[in-house]
Design brief:
The complex is a heterotrimer of chains A (304), B (246) and C (369). Chain A is of the alpha/beta class and 304 residues long. Chain A has ten helices and 14 strands. Chain A has helices at residues 43-50, 72-78, 94-104, 113-123, 136-148, 166-181, 216-221, 235-244, 269-278, 293-303; strands spanning 3-14, 17-28, 32-36, 58-63, 66-67, 79-82, 154-157, 185-190, 201-206, 209-214, 227-231, 248-254, 257-262, 285-289. In chain A, the strands form three sheets. Chain A has a six-stranded mixed sheet with strand order 6-7-8-3-9-10, sandwiched between helices. In chain A, strands 2-1-4-5 form a four-stranded antiparallel sheet, covered by helices on one side. In chain A, strands 12-13-11-14 form a four-stranded antiparallel sheet, with helices on one face. In chain A, a hairpin with a 2-residue loop joins strand 12 and strand 13. The radius of gyration of chain A is 23 Å and the shape is globular. By secondary structure, chain B is of the alpha/beta class. Chain B has nine helices and ten strands. In chain B, the strands form two sheets. Chain B has a six-stranded mixed sheet, sandwiched between helices. In chain B, strands 2-1-4-5 form a four-stranded antiparallel sheet. In chain C, helix 2 runs antiparallel to helix 7 (175-201) and helix 10 (253-277) runs antiparallel to helix 13. In chain C, helix 6 (125-148) links the parallel strand 4 and strand 5 (156-164). By secondary structure, chain C is of the alpha/beta class.
Chain lengths: 304, 246, 369
């Protein structure tokens, strides 16, 4: 059994809402696997089924070689789970939180300190401070330490970087890489498309369905169209004008630029340039670029 | 000549011995999308509260839409709109009730509220869900509605607090198109956020750290200066040295 | 077991760190005991006594003068007929009415004895008891004076005491059992339901469930600290009422504490049941107030005696566990009866407790809903 997680056609509904509509994917041992999708895509529900907190309506979920439904008692010892809201006790200190989670898992902080040393050393100077008074980045590190304290084989992190500033996010991903080297399989979800490139493989999820599973690189390589980034001084007019262009396929704002794909791949930069010049746009810039994960995501959303 | 809708000179705000805003000076032009960035605790919230007329500076000169921050807060409040992703609409009221409520709060005549409501619902394609509770709507719809409600009274400036966190990429783009459209009509958009990818959409951004503005320029210029591929990297480069352990 | 102890330790940290919890646990009970206790006045000073003097002779004047000059009483109105007695007491113009019958002096001389009646306001039993005791003492003093004088034989004035409004002289300390009943349900049910829903609301329940902790351990870990704190609270209330108001427990203290523990268990299981149904703290608080506190205060016989309630309320009251606990407490504390008199009520509490525990175990799952 080489897979850490094997999900076969998992379905789950809450009343009328179909949270998961047949999710199949596999996560290899030792991988950093990213589940990428917006709020409400079904990420948390899938994670709760993997961590044995929820029963699927249909389908089979195998985690670390055990069935997630019948083997839940063993699995709860082997999985480290960090829920979306960090699940720290705000009125307990940093130290108390860590010790509490250690006792709950029948271990001690000292026993597994080497595993968390890297992460915990960032917050150890504040170990007497109440968790409620920590910054977002520090809470995140403490929550990660708590999820790791029992030396799990599989680490499941639900949106660990949401609401955390850019610097802490970067540090967090560096920590995950180090944990991976220690042999821990890491499953992480995120609404940030740009974090996809930091994973070994990713699954794009939307509306309870998996749009694609692959390495970040192959996912962008599979993008079927040529893509241009365009800018001018008037953003809103640029978008509407490009949409009116007779060969326009999809036109979306991407930060300071507009990403344009043609109806066919015959469109050239010059053509767009001339078209915009004629409409009196100033400071026009058109260049062909390689698609990013977000371009692919939008494309897959429109196709499905 | 470009008109400055927000003008801040030597703004200082202290809480006891702690200086939350340390001598801020910047201008925001009419019709501009201005990004106001910073890590948690950098002093963003304090500054925005002052700009909205909710609190007074310790010293310094601030003019919002031509009104003085010390004496004309009521006029300022009438000329600004505010939207936050977390708490802008009442979840337990319907779409129509929310629109009417905000129209009423800003003292619009009933006839005008009815007109604007019809026009707004039509534009957003939400006429069919007008009597549905906000709680049942997709996040993307809520955001668009929240923004439309925030500009219902035709404010000169709209303050947006982390407006697009968590929505799907298409909904996010549709939302920014609304913002571009509003800005092209002359309304100034003031975005506070710590999501750096939202910053990429702004005309100009300022980055705050420890109460000071440490960078202010277009995203493209900042990326060039700091030789970074994204605003996120720019932010990391600016903020990391001063962060030490926190 | 180490897991469980770690969990209980954490609960104690939560409790001791939150000053609001500490106030609810120890401040409110103390304040309530003192408040209830002092509202019921116990001091007799310058109480007004009205007189209905039908003989209007020298002896009656001497007795009434003696009463009024004693320092405890002040002369109130002079009444004209028996019909005025009730209104004098009801309006509060008099704490007591002393009635001399016709021919008081003649009876005393002719028959060697005469009877005066003391009618007191029983709605404040303590004052009423003292009033009658003092008046009796004053009359006894008058008798001694008579015996010492040159009057023939031993003449006797006999006081005859009657109580209005509360003829059975129920003790004013009735409030203590009611208070314990109310406070226990408040602390146990309210606090446990709040702390369990708080874990749900802050997302920590998710992490607990994803750990090897069993749901039973989570529930017990929440319950154990509150069990002990509530017990301490009950003892505190008893001590305070004894210390400040001189209330003593007439029956067995051990039986009393055992019953208190049973009631605490019942309240705790009610709290768990509420929290297993509530989605957030707001619902939990509302649920305990409506489901626990209000009925306890209004229908358990604490404020309004159950016998004087409309029949429908008596029926509702019958399904409220606090009602039975009030009966148990009154029996042990005030009447001093033993277990034989309260086994029925104890059994009912036991049934409620097992029922609540069974129901909450069924709804508290090993997984999220």
């Amino acid at each position: 059994m080489n897979q850490a997680i094997l999900s076969e056609d998992i379905r789950k509904s809450f009343g009328e809402v179909k949270a998961l509509q047949g999710v199949s994917l596999d996560v290899g041992r030792g991988e950093i696997f990213g589940l990428i999708g917006p709020d409400g895509a079904g990420k948390t529900t899938l994670f709760r089924i993997i961590t044995t907190l929820m029963l699927p309506d249909a389908g089979r979920m195998t985690v670390l070689g055990l069935d997630a439904v019948s083997g839940y008692k063993t699995l709860r010892r082997k999985i480290g789970y960090m829920p979306g809201r960090f699940s720290l006790y705000q009125d307990l200190s940093v130290e108390e939180n860590l010790h509490f989670y250690a006792t709950v898992f029948g271990t001690t902080v000292r026993e597994n300190y080497d595993l968390i040393a890297d992460i915990y050393s960032h917050i150890e100077p504040f170990k007497k401070r109440l968790a409620g008074q920590l910054s977002g980045g520090m809470k995140q590190k403490l929550a990660l330490s708590c999820a790791l304290i029992h030396k799990p084989e599989l680490l499941v992190l639900d949106e660990p970087t949401t609401g955390v500033d850019a610097v802490s996010r970067k540090e967090f991903w560096e920590m995950l890489k180090k944990l991976q080297q220690k042999g821990i399989t890491i499953l992480v979800s995120t609404p940030y498309m740009d974090e996809a490139t930091l994973c070994d493989r990713v699954a794009l999820i939307q509306g309870g369905r998996i749009l694609d599973v692959d390495t970040p690189r192959r996912i962008t390589e599979k993008f079927p169209h040529r893509i241009f980034q365009v800018r001018s001084d008037e953003m809103f007019r640029l978008i509407t004008d490009l949409r009116d262009f007779k060969k326009a396929g999809s036109v979306f704002a991407f930060g300071q630029y507009v990403h344009f794909t043609g109806l066919d791949d015959e469109v050239e930069c010059v053509e767009l340039d001339n078209y915009l010049d004629k409409l009196n746009h100033t400071n026009v810039l058109v260049e062909e670029i390689a698609p990013g994960i977000e371009d692919v995501f939008i494309h897959l959303m429109k196709v499905s | 000549m470009e008109e400055n809708i927000i003008s801040v000179r030597n703004l200082v705000r202290k809480f006891g011995s702690f200086t939350a805003n340390d001598n801020l000076s910047f201008d925001v032009r009419k019709g501009e999308i201005f990004g106001f960035l910073g890590a948690n605790g950098a002093g963003k919230t304090t500054a925005v509260r002052i700009l909205c007329g909710l609190s007074k500076p310790t010293s310094g000169e601030v003019k919002i839409a031509g009104f003085d921050i010390y004496r004309e807060t009521e006029k300022i409040k009438r000329n600004i709109g505010y939207m936050s992703q977390r708490f802008s609409l009442y979840e337990d009221l319907t779409v129509a009730e929310n629109i009417q409520l905000y129209g009423g709060i800003y003292g619009l005549p009933n006839r005008l509220i009815r007109e604007k409501q019809a026009e707004l619902l039509n534009r957003l394609g939400m006429t069919d869900v007008r009597n549905k509770l906000i709680a049942g709507l997709p996040l993307g719809w809520k955001q668009k509605l929240a923004f439309s409600v925030a500009i219902l009274h035709d404010p000169k400036i709209v303050f947006l607090d982390e407006p697009t966190g968590g929505v799907d990429p298409i909904a996010r783009r549709q939302f920014w198109e609304m913002i571009y459209e509003t800005a092209s009509g002359g309304t100034t958009i003031f975005v506070t956020t710590h999501y750096m990818d939202e910053a990429e959409y702004c005309d100009r951004i300022s980055i705050m750290s420890e109460g000071k503005i440490v960078a202010l320029d277009t995203p493209a210029a900042l990326k060039r200066i700091y030789q970074a591929p994204s605003v996120e990297e720019v932010f990391v480069k600016i903020a990391r040295p001063s962060k030490s352990l926190l | 077991m180490k897991r469980f102890i770690g969990f209980v330790k954490k609960e104690f940290l939560h409790i001791f760190r939150d000053y609001l919890t500490m106030i609810i646990l120890f401040g409110i009970p103390a304040v309530l005991v003192l408040l209830f206790g002092f509202v019921i006045s116990t001091e007799l000073k310058d109480a007004r006594v009205a007189f209905l003097d039908l003989s209007n002779d020298g002896t009656t004047h001497r007795i009434s003068e003696k009463i009024c000059s004693s320092g405890f009483f002040k002369r109130g109105a002079s009444l004209d007929s028996f019909d005025d007695i009730e209104s004098a007491l009801r309006s509060g113009k008099a704490r007591a009415v002393v009635v001399f019958g016709n021919d008081f002096e003649r009876n005393l001389i002719r028959e060697g004895r005469a009877t005066l009646s003391v009618i007191t306001d029983g709605s404040e039993p303590n004052v009423a008891t003292q009033t009658t005791t003092f008046i009796s003492a004053i009359v006894a003093g008058f008798n001694a004076d008579l015996a010492g004088s040159d009057s023939p034989g031993t003449l006797l004035v006999q006081p005859e005491v009657r109580m209005f409004y509360n003829p059975l002289m129920k003790s004013q300390f009735m409030f203590v059992p009611g208070l314990i009943t109310m406070i226990m349900i408040m602390i146990c049910a309210l606090m446990t339901s709040i702390t369990l829903t708080r874990e749900k609301e802050f997302g920590t329940m998710e992490a607990l469930l994803a750990s090897p902790l069993k749901p039973v351990q989570i529930i017990l870990g929440k319950v154990v600290p509150y069990f002990f704190l509530s017990l301490i609270d009950a003892i505190l209330i008893l001590l305070l009422s004894w210390w400040v108001f001189g209330l003593t427990v007439k029956g067995s203290l051990i039986l009393l504490l055992a019953e208190v523990m049973l009631y605490i268990l019942m309240s705790l299981s009610l709290g768990i049941l509420i929290s297993s149904k509530a989605k957030n703290m707001q619902q939990a608080i509302f649920g305990t107030l409506v489901g626990g506190m209000l009925p306890t205060v209004l229908l358990s016989g604490f404020i309004v005696p159950i016998d004087s309630m409309p029949e429908i309320y008596q029926w509702i009251s019958a399904v409220l566990p606090p009602r039975y606990f009030v009966v148990i407490l009154k029996n042990i504390m005030i009447k001093g009866t033993g277990f034989l008199f309260i086994w029925k009520e104890t059994l009912i509490l036991l049934l409620f407790t097992t029922g609540f525990i069974a129901l909450s175990l069924r709804s508290f799952k090993t997984r999220l809903q």
